């Protein structure tokens, strides 16, 4: 039971870092990135490839972060010529392209089998404590960013892009910096995920992972850090409770997977119907 709780909290902390990264784009900047999981995948594969080649896993993490930031810059530039909804579809396509490449380029990524034998940085409780510390630091940094000039500029771009442009803000630069900062944080989470699982594979790049992060944000509250973390831990708690129900009620694993999706869907639907802005909505100043 203790090991199960440690594992569940570690997963929640990892997803918390990824969700904080997505919140930088979607919550503050209003950017519809449906391929966000690609940044985590690059961080994980950077670590896996470096370890496979005999290099330090820390070098692999740095390599993955640089790759993710480079992809973020390219994705932001792509958004100059596309409307927000088309840009969101384009990001989904980019993540899917990366997944297909990871599946087929076995010489580099291990193909469908992925890369295993990635060393764990710490064991059990030590890894959890490290993740909770990183999550706390990331939350404080994101809060400081949100309260600063850059965060206010992102919110202005989200609410009134034309006004932001008239005030002299370079919208492309704002989007690029938000996406690249988000990519760096998410890539670190992806690298640590690979260490925790001792494995990285194409399944890390599934679109369902991005939509799971979006679900966490929508349940908790876009643009509110406390809401984001609440959504992450609430969804993770729902995922963790299903195995207990499975053993107690005696149904099979396939039904357990369907129950997980149904439970998360029910929570999301309830929030959309009665708390459309999330459980802890963002407080936005209104111009009188």
UniProtKB/TrEMBL annotation:
<protein>
    <submittedName>
        <fullName>Branched-chain amino acid ABC transporter permease</fullName>
    </submittedName>
</protein>
<dbReference type="GO" id="GO:0015658">
    <property type="term" value="F:branched-chain amino acid transmembrane transporter activity"/>
</dbReference>
<keyword id="KW-1133">Transmembrane helix</keyword>
<dbReference type="InterPro" id="IPR043428">
    <property type="entry name" value="LivM-like"/>
</dbReference>
<dbReference type="InterPro" id="IPR001851">
    <property type="entry name" value="ABC_transp_permease"/>
</dbReference>
<keyword id="KW-0472">Membrane</keyword>
<keyword id="KW-1003">Cell membrane</keyword>
<keyword id="KW-0812">Transmembrane</keyword>
<dbReference type="GO" id="GO:0005886">
    <property type="term" value="C:plasma membrane"/>
</dbReference>
<dbReference type="Pfam" id="PF02653">
    <property type="entry name" value="BPD_transp_2"/>
</dbReference>
């Amino acid at each position: 039971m203790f090991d199960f709780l440690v594992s569940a909290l570690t997963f929640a902390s990892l997803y918390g870092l990824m969700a904080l990264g997505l919140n930088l784009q979607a919550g503050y900047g209003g950017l519809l990135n449906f391929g966000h999981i690609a940044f985590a995948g690059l961080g994980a594969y950077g670590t896996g490839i470096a370890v496979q080649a005999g290099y330090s896993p820390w070098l692999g993490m740095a390599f993955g972060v640089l790759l993710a930031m480079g992809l973020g810059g390219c994705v932001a530039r792509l958004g100059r010529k596309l409307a927000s909804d088309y840009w969101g579809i384009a990001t989904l396509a980019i993540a899917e392209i990366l997944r297909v490449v990871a599946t087929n380029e076995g010489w580099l990524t291990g193909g469908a089998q992925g890369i295993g034998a990635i060393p764990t940085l710490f064991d059990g409780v030590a890894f959890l404590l490290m993740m909770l510390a990183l999550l706390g630091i990331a939350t404080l940094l994101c809060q400081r960013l949100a309260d600063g000039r850059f965060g206010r500029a992102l919110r202005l771009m989200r609410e009134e892009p034309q006004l932001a442009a008239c005030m002299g803000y370079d919208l492309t630069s704002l989007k690029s910096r938000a996406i690249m900062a988000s990519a760096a944080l998410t890539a670190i989470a992806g690298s640590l995920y690979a260490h925790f699982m001792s494995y990285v594979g194409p399944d890390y790049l599934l679109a369902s992972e991005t939509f799971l992060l979006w679900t966490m944000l929508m349940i908790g509250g876009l643009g509110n850090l406390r809401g984001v973390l609440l959504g992450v831990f609430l969804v993770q708690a729902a995922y963790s409770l299903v195995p207990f129900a499975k053993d107690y009620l005696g149904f099979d694993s396939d039904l357990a997977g369907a129950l997980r999706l149904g439970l998360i869907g029910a929570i999301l639907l309830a929030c959309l119907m009665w708390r459309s802005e999330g459980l802890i909505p963002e407080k936005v100043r209104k111009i009188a």
